[in-house]
Amino acid sequence: MFLQITTTHRPATDLGYLLHKNPGRAHEVEFGFGKAHLFYPEAGDARCTATLVLDIDPVALVRGKGTGDGLLSQYVNDRPYAASSFLAVAMGRTIREAIQGRSRERQAVADAAIPLEVVVAPLPARGGEDIVRRLFAPFGYDLKIEPILLDPHRPDWGHSQYVTLTLCATCRLADILTHLVVIIPALDGAKHYYIADDEVEKLLTRGKGWLETHPERELIVTRYLRGRRSLIKDALARLASAEETEEAAEVAVDGSRMDAAEEIIERPLRLHDVRLDTVAETLKSLGAARVLDLGCGEGKLIGRLVKDKQFIEIVGVEVSSVSLARALARLEKLPEKQRERVKLLQGALIYRDARLRGFDAAALVEVIEHIEPDRLYHLERSVFSDAAPRAVLVTTPNADYNALFPTLAAGKFRHEDHRFEWSRAEFAAWAERVASAYGYQFRIEPLGEVDAQHGAPSQMGVFTR
User: What are phi and psi of 16, to 5 degrees?
Assistant: First the structure.
């Protein structure tokens, strides 16, 4: 069984810093059940691949144990070959820091969304390809699921219960690894160690931030805990409680997470609805038919656009797998004819993405202020130069208006995740520079009721070719 991780992030050899394993040599970790070997088949600036191969000793699996299941099941099984809880344990020890999102020398890369391709084989798929797709699709990955024949020399025997899984995404390495260490054992359903109370804690820790909202969380929990009813009941109750707490503390707004403090600040002005309604109306007036919602969050703008038949194709792009899962759940409630016009992608807006080219318009609603100023140039280049839609709509808070919020302290941003909040003059200067650099015209429109001195609470730049 093996796990293979490939990146084209430059320099691609940063992967070694993320995995805490030098690409210049092979690495070996011993376990009671065998050995894990991690090596790099390729390691260059443009592309780097790390492969984790688990070599299981089938005799070591049963040494010193009883034979209550019979000798045949003890020695003739798929444990040395199938990606299972053994692989999850090997990942947990061999690349622990990468799963936790820590890198001593490249923390900025560990925190960033980078292009990744991850292959797992052979992956057990009890329930067929459909269940693999149901468990991984909510994260927004590009999925490739290849069935494995029972015998390549006898194709008439059909497919086995194993597949080769390939996940492609632009995301944090820690996110994709965390999803794998939970879902691989859930797909296999045959953990090699005793399931105790601490297994619930492990599951909740690894699933924090995504398992609460996964549409198949009950299936994942049931399989991960191998049918232990008391543990399953406890885990599901705690997940439900966590989801309710999160929803009470946060609401999703325009592709970013807004906490209760920001909601209290802006709620009296209905800015959430004003932004989305205005953007939807502007896209319609521009005659756009194929639209990108960049930083789509839970898909609330998409929910508005899909009701209008003018928008024949709507693509939402979001880096957060949790938000994408919620957007997918929202999408699944729509009529089939509307769902067919929508596609959700996982991706980071600071990287060029060929999937985003050729659209009529793109909307970035309350997105840019969440990006570090020194990285904003990369977003400008990927959206205005590479994707290059006919029109781009950008909304962002007006810092001038902050003085009118009675609960907002002087000098504070409306949200703790904001990296900046621009005044009207600063936004206009940025818009003018971007329009000039990439061949657009622009106009700026107020969002919300306009104060004579401080302007509107939010502002929208409309860029057109």
Answer: -65, -35
pLDDT at 256: 39
Pinpoint the alpha helices (H) of 137-228.
Answer: 173-188, 198-207, 217-224
Residue 77 in tokens: 């099984």
- The answer to whether 199 touches 234, Cβ cutoff 8 Å, is no
- Token output for 183: 């879902």
**Cβ atoms 314, 323 nearer than 8 A:** no
- Across the beta sheet with 159-171, the strand order is 27-31, 34-43, 48-56, 2-7, 114-124, 159-171, 142-149
Highest mean pLDDT among 8-22, 89-103, 116-130: 8-22
The residue type at 200: V
For residue 395, the one-letter residue type is T
Give the whole-angstrom CA distance, residue 161 versus residue 296: 36
pLDDT band at 73 (very low <50, low <70, confident <90, very high): low
217 by DSSP, 3-state: which? Answer: helix
Q: Show the tokens assigned to 240.
A: 């439900």
Confidence (pTM): 0.55
Spatial distance between the Cα atoms of 382 and 386, rounded to a whole number of angstroms: 5
Residue 311 CB-half CA count within 13 A: 29
Instruction: Measure the CA–CA gap between 461 and 444, rounded to whole angstroms.
Output: 4
Report the distance separating Cα 180 and Cα 206, nearest Å.
10
Angstrom CA distances, 328 to 136, 175, 187, 277, 283, stand at 12, 18, 21, 21, 22
N-term to C-term CA, the chain: 52
Q: Which two tokens stand for residue 220?
A: 């994942």
Task: State the sign of the Cα–Cα–Cα–Cα dihedral 380, 446, 410, 255.
Answer: negative
Q: Give the CA angle between residues 41, 47, 53 to the nearest 5°.
A: 30
Q: Is 149 helix (H, G, I), strand (E, B) or coil?
A: strand
Residues contacting residue 171 through CB under 8 Å, at least 6 positions apart: 113, 114, 116, 319, 321, 346, 347, 348
Q: Is 302 helix (H, G, I), strand (E, B) or coil?
A: helix
Cα of 382 vs its chain's centroid, Å: 19
**Tokens 């997105």 sit on residue:** 367
CA-CA-CA-CA torsion sign (21, 166, 136, 171): positive
